[in-house]
Amino acid sequence: MRHLSYVAVLAFCVLGTLPLELWLGVRVYRQWRRLLLTLLPVVAVFVAWDLYAISAGHWTFDEEQTTGVVLPGSLPLDELLFFVVVPTCALLSVEAVRKVRGWPLGDE
Fold it and tell me: Are the C-beta atoms of residues 80 and 5 closer than 8 Å to each other?
């Protein structure tokens, strides 16, 4: 069960911020193009950074705490999911604060 630790933390992040979408209606998931445009640079930069660090031997991942699914370049799937989940949860949080406080987005 320990091999699901990383994914469990990510699932907790998603479940913890899901009410922001459902009950506050921040519309992050409904604006999928905007979400993708936000995530693409983040994912690209951090995946490249991770791949470099792995290849240079700067860091590794504990195989006992990840699913064991490894992408090309020795990048665990869990790590790629991290780069999608955490920024999405942060965006949900920012949008929730913006909505509750009534702050304009500036691009509508």
Answer: no
